Amino acid sequence: MGIIEPYNSSSPAQGRIAVTGKDADRFSFKVPTLRNVELTYPYFHDGEAETLREAVAVMGRLQLGWNYSAEELNDMVAFLKTLTGERPAIALPLLPASMDRTHRPEPFK
Ligand code: HEM
Known about the structure:
The chain is mainly α and 109 residues long. It is built from three helices and no strands. The protein has helices spanning 17-20, 52-64, 70-81. The longest helix has 13 residues, at 52-64. It is flat, with a radius of gyration of 18 Å. The site of protoporphyrin IX containing FE has 18 residues, from helix 2.
């Protein structure tokens, strides 16, 4: 994230570098599928983009060095909305019951 212009937000997250410690992984984020993206507000790893239009405008500027016109943004948002369909039902796995001596999670540093 931030190939042409750096990504500025109030979130301190810097992506995969937090796990690997490698500078090449700075601002590397897992990108969710764009299928049903119309239904999955808010956008980006920190949820800073509140609308699809804003997310597309940010993508254009930061990733491609391009300022899209209002009409181009309308067209791209209209295209992204064609990716809306039935939402898959996701069954979460039932984990073994936890006990007092169950290992506690260790959050990323
Ligand atoms: C006009 C072209 C593009 C459109 C319409 C577009 C659209 C989007 C949208 C809607 C998201 C938000 C996904 C979500 O949070 O659910 C996203 C995220 C992302 N896109 Fe793009 N994108 C474009 C170009 C690019 C390019 C050229 C790159 C890389 C070279 C890129 C890399 C990413 C990354 C890394 C994220 C995740 C960012 C984060 O979570 O902080 N995108 N894109």
